[in-house]
Write a structure and sequence with these properties.
Number of strands: 2
Radius of gyration: 19 Å
Oligomer: single chain
Structural class: mainly alpha
Shape: globular
Strand content: under 5%
Distance between the termini: 35 Å
Pfam families: DUF4735
GO cellular component, one term: cytosol
Strand order of the largest sheet: 1-2
Keywords: Signal
């Protein structure tokens, strides 16, 4: 509690020293401000969130760490921003630990499956950016697509958190499902997610020797999906998936996903008074979300979504790092 109060007081001092007009004009300050509010939300609600939220904040922590390293040579020019990031990351580490402990008590199965990915140091964010190569040929596959239960099983096998399994273990059925090119939505994004988990652990398996090829294909398809959502003005119906695509392909290093209009959209989804994010067009209709995700979405009073907040903070971390490049 004292850590949260100290962070809130120091945050207020920093914000007072920034003119409102400069905050609106400077996207970097807008991103940092949104992150600070989201970190405060975590501190106040660490016992009300699910494993997805903790994972999203873990990705944010990795981005903040890399931003601090990038700014090491610009101490005089970025004094206020550096101090804000430093304070935020320090508070975030404390809140993440508390949230992970709460998840372990409330949902021990999910915590066990993803435990390594909830700790600082697991996520490695891009040090350079690349573009999607739309000319790389691929053929559409057919057959069954990944489901969320299988996704969790395959990822936990990679993480070595299943009973009697080693890190980077790949069940045969995971290989077949993870290289499909005809799937869409969350099923597609979780195929990329699988390859990202493998990258974080430098898995040497032959499947991942072609990781760059599959990352390019998946993010090409995910970019097409995001553009289609934007073109058809479905943003408010598909905001969660739209932002998840940005977060995952940003982690894969594709810079096309860091579009200014998309950043503005994510910032507008934040509940300013709470710091959390809400991207659904309906009230807290848990039944709708259960049908889409294996782990039940957790809502917090005030119109807050655990998963919306997770993908938002992960995506915003990418926007901040990309802006420092």
């Amino acid at each position: 509690m004292q850590k949260m109060l100290d962070f809130g007081f120091l945050l207020m001092i920093c914000l007072v020293n920034l003119q409102p007009t400069s905050c609106q004009a400077d996207r970097r300050n807008a991103i940092i401000s949104a992150m600070e509010k989201a970190v405060m939300f975590l501190g106040e609600n660490h016992d009300k969130l699910n494993v997805d939220a903790v994972l999203g904040y873990s990705v944010l922590e990795a981005y903040l760490n890399m931003v601090m390293k990038r700014w090491e040579g610009n101490i005089m020019e970025l004094t206020i921003e550096r101090q804000r990031i430093l304070m935020m990351r320090e508070a975030l580490l404390t809140f993440m630990k508390e949230a992970a402990q709460d998840v372990e008590k409330q949902d021990p199965v999910s915590h066990k499956e993803f435990a390594p990915a909830l700790k600082p140091g697991f996520w490695k964010v891009p040090q350079e950016w690349k573009k999607i190569n739309e000319s790389i040929p691929y053929s559409l596959t057919s057959g069954s697509c990944l489901d969320f239960t299988t996704s969790d099983i395959c990822i936990s096998a990679l993480l070595g958190t299943q009973d009697d399994s080693d890190v980077c273990w790949i069940p045969d059925y995971c290989t077949n499902l993870m290289v499909n090119t005809h799937c869409d939505g969350y099923l597609l994004s979780h195929q990329l997610f699988y390859f990202l988990f493998a990258k974080m652990q430098s898995c040497p398996n032959s499947l991942f020797q072609n990781a760059a090829y599959y990352e390019n294909i998946f993010c090409d398809l995910m970019m097409q999906a995001n553009r289609n959502v934007e073109k058809k003005n479905f943003m408010d119906n598909c905001g969660d998936l739209f932002t998840e695509n940005i977060m995952f392909c940003g982690l894969a290093g594709f810079s096309e996903f860091f579009q200014t209009s998309w950043l503005d959209r994510i910032l507008n989804w934040q509940k300013q008074e709470k710091g959390c994010f809400w991207m659904y067009t309906f009230p807290s209709d848990e039944g709708h979300v259960r049908r889409r995700r294996k782990r039940t979405e957790k809502f917090v009073e005030g119109g807050c979504s655990s998963h919306n907040t997770a993908v938002a903070v992960g995506a915003l971390g990418g926007f901040l790092l990309y802006g420092t490049s």
